[in-house]
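Structure in, sequence out. Go:
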């Protein structure tokens, strides 16, 4: 690969997501048609200041510096560039201050600086004129949008929630339709996981369903449940592939909002510890909120599932954009904190593709929309249609 990354700062402590940055770097080189070797080095302010003093005679640190391998070749087309295009140095400390000031995730700001550095290596210079500075700024903005949303570097997974199949069954108190059979159809159609919520009042999914699903699901069984002693005992006995802790109210039609991890740290943390002790990975269903995500990481969760309900229910375009931006930032923050990221609630065939484009998210949990669509086209087709929406086109290598 013509791209080399070095980290001269502690990755986890600094909030750097190396997988995300390196995937974006690969995509950038493809977008710019660069086949020459490029080195990108992330460092602290002190090291950056030494380079800035040595090469630019300036005593303070700056955010990014570019050093073309062959200054005479600067400005030539990428396909004719020498084998080694050059080096890009990025100060993580300066980038972090800028990210806080601009209200954006650190890894987004680091991506912007890498783009800026690449543009310099290709001969663009914003200091030559105001007109060129504006042209470069627009080009960088366009590159950032493309690298963020033009395709995923990793495959996004779909987990299908079959609770609503059980809801139809319970409405008549019979044995059909069976969520166990529905789960098998979903897996055959390409779903990477099955989700069920065993509620304390057993309004839809029953104990029998969970027990049979544990024996029959071939992909991954995700058990959603409240953080109660009864549910912990069931999970430790059934041993699903993962547990998602969700808030639960007796009178709600469906889950309303995310867990209050900060307010229930002791109780939720104790449940996470028990499940981790039983070697069951735990996901916490949380709102896209920085404090909730921080608390989730601190109490030992492996995943967070970001609540997408407010984004899906937003009545105006402006509100939807605000909610989408919260999800985007929260996904990046969670990844930077070492958490794996899923998302779900309210997603359908219209609003899912934008969420699916976010590289930090590994899996989407979707139930109601797929089961509703299945009434018209069949469950197999409904799952395949959703998969086609969330995987266009796959940008992996």
């Amino acid at each position: 690969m013509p791209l080399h990354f070095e980290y001269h700062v502690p990755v986890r402590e600094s909030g750097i997501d190396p997988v995300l940055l390196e995937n974006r770097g690969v995509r950038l080189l493809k977008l710019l048609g660069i086949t020459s070797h490029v080195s990108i080095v992330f460092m602290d302010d002190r090291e950056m200041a030494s380079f800035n003093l040595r090469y630019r005679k300036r005593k303070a640190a700056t955010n990014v510096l570019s050093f073309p391998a062959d200054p005479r070749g600067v400005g030539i087309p990428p396909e004719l560039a020498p084998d080694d295009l050059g080096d890009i140095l990025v100060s993580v400390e300066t980038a972090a201050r800028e990210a806080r000031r601009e209200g954006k995730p650190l890894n987004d700001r680091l991506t912007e600086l890498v783009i800026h550095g690449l543009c310099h290596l290709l001969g663009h210079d914003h200091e030559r004129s105001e007109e060129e500075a504006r042209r470069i700024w627009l080009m960088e903005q366009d590159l950032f949008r493309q690298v963020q949303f033009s395709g995923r570097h990793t495959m996004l997974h779909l987990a299908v929630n079959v609770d609503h199949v059980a809801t139809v069954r319970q409405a008549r108190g019979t044995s059909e339709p069976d969520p166990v059979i529905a789960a098998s159809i979903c897996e055959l159609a390409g779903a990477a996981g099955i989700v069920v919520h065993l509620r304390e009042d057993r309004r839809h999914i029953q104990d029998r369903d969970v027990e049979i699903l544990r024996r029959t699901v071939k992909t991954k069984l995700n058990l959603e449940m409240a953080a109660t002693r009864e549910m912990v005992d069931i999970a430790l006995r059934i041993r699903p592939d993962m547990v998602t802790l969700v808030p639960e109210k007796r009178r709600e039609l469906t889950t309303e909002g995310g867990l209050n991890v900060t307010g229930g740290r002791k109780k939720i943390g104790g449940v996470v510890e028990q499940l981790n002790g039983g070697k069951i990975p735990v996901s916490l269903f949380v709102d896209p909120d920085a404090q909730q995500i921080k608390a989730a990481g601190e109490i030992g969760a492996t995943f967070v599932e970001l609540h997408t309900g407010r984004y899906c229910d937003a009545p105006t375009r402006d509100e939807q954009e605000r909610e989408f931006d919260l999800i985007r930032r929260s996904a990046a923050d969670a990844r930077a904190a070492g958490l794996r990221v899923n998302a779900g609630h309210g997603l359908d065939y219209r609003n899912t593709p934008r969420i699916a484009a976010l590289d930090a998210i590994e899996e989407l949990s979707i139930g109601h929309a797929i089961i509703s669509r299945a009434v018209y086209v069949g469950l197999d087709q409904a799952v395949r249609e959703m998969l086609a929406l969330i995987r266009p086109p796959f940008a992996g290598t």
